[in-house]
Amino acid sequence: MHLNPYGEEVVNLAADLANRRPKTPGELADRCRAAGLVLERPVTPGDLDRAQDALDQWEKVVDAAEENERAGLLNQMLAASAAHPRLTDHAGSGWHLHYREDRQPLGALLHQLISVGTALHLSGRGMHRLRRCAVTECVTIFADTSRTGRQRYCSQRCANRDAVRRHRARGLRD
What we know:
This protein has 174 residues and is mainly α. Helices cover 53% and strands 7% of the residues. It is built from six helices and four strands. Strands 1-2 form a two-stranded antiparallel sheet.
């Protein structure tokens, strides 16, 4: 059985890349390999530029104020990147489904993976399950993969910091 490469892993990769933008093609390649992507071509400065562009577009999806806006922005990304679904065994790892052409440069590949993966994440888990941390001074993006769909913070550290802040604010009012 081959796991869906368009599931939560690619949305988490997008969040990781958006939160800490790669500075070089080598760094982009290393982080994508670490996330499990099979790189079929050398990574170029053009791939880094295309990936940055995809992340800029994706952050607009994350920051959309309401569901229809989010869907519209994501549909634009999908229209610009997705291809017809196809079965492939490109890496010899077993037959699986791709929503893209084989042997794409990494920048185009990331745009395709991020757009399709985000669409599947939001349509399968809920349109609200992609956001920035609820702590005002934290701008970290995360995909809510919690069972309840009520995750508000990017990390336990931010959740604790906000709880302490709320507790102290209550103490000042009493």
